[in-house]
């Protein structure tokens, strides 16, 4: 006999996501001397934050982990609570159902399915951008509008899509001649999109993007990520 890490046997690739969720939950939250297969149904949110951070850093192979503001956004998403402050979530517990059973409001997927999609996209296409802190990523569309609405025309930031699994979108402000502002979100880019043309080159292509929030010229922020083989057209 020998002890092993948790394993899950699947019969089809479409079960892979749920299997990974089961292994993660079991590996992170089971007790060493437990009754076999018994795992806590609820765990402290702070413990979940640590687990998501370790998983993110390990999968993406980056030293830049999640920040406090990222945890706040993730808490709002998993608890479906946009009225509580960051400190209000510290004493809460999150259930297995909230993690990977209940469908997120207005979506067709669970919290874990969404988070795993972010992991996969970042690992495959965005590692260097994340490691350079060029992607805010975990931030709500509503908060982005609040941040950008007072910024100069062409200010932008990057966030992970709420509506699609494994997508990154660019939010940017358009300021009219009368001083009014409008924040637009560009259609999310998937891993397939970014394998055809990189995120850096797409940002260079988009003339309406000028400064990465809060005020770094885009060529200064993303210049090292431009592909020199592409013409500047």
Automatic annotation (TrEMBL):
Presence of the UniProt keyword Repressor in the record: no
One GO MF term: DNA binding
Entry keywords, A to Z: Activator, Cytoplasm, DNA-binding, Nucleus, Phosphoprotein, SH2 domain, Transcription, Transcription regulation
Gene3D superfamilies: EF-hand, SH2 domain
GO BP term, pick one: cell surface receptor signaling pathway
Any single GO CC term annotated in Swiss-Prot or TrEMBL for this entry: cytoplasm
Locations listed in the record: Cytoplasm; Nucleus
One Pfam family from the record: SH2
InterPro entries with a match to the protein in the record: p53-like_TF_DNA-bd_sf (IPR008967), SH2 (IPR000980), SH2_dom_sf (IPR036860), STAT (IPR001217), STAT_linker (IPR048988)
Top-level taxon: Eukaryota
Annotated ranges, domain SH2: 114-224
Entry annotated with the keyword DNA-binding: yes
Major localization listed first in the record, in broad terms: cytoplasm
UniProt-listed SMART domains: SH2
PANTHER family given in the database record: SIGNAL TRANSDUCER AND ACTIVATOR OF TRANSCRIPTION (PTHR11801)
Family: Belongs to the transcription factor STAT family.
UniProt protein name: STAT6 protein
Protein source organism: Crypturellus undulatus
């Amino acid at each position: 006999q020998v002890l092993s890490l948790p394993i899950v046997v699947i019969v089809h690739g479409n079960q892979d996501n749920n299997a990974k969720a089961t292994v993660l939950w079991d590996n992170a939250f089971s007790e060493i001397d437990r009754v076999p297969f018994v795992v806590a149904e609820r765990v402290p949110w702070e413990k979940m934050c640590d687990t998501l951070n370790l998983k993110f850093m390990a999968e993406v192979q980056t030293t830049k982990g999640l920040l406090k503001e990222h945890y706040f956004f993730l808490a709002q998403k998993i608890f479906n609570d946009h009225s509580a402050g960051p400190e209000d979530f510290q004493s809460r517990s999150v259930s297995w159902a909230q993690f990977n059973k209940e469908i997120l409001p207005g979506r067709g997927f669970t919290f874990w399915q969404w988070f795993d999609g972010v992991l996969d996209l970042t690992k495959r296409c965005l590692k260097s951008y994340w490691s350079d802190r060029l992607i805010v990523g975990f931030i709500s569309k509503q908060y982005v509008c609040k941040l950008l609405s007072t910024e100069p025309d062409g200010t932008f930031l990057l966030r992970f899509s709420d509506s699609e699994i494994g997508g990154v979108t660019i939010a940017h402000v358009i300021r009219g001649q009368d001083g009014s502002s409008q924040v637009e979100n560009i259609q999310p880019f998937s891993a397939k999109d970014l394998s055809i043309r990189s995120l850096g080159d797409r940002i260079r292509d988009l003339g309406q993007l000028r400064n990465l929030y809060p005020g770094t010229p885009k060529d200064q922020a993303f210049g090292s990520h431009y592909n020199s083989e592409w013409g500047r057209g």
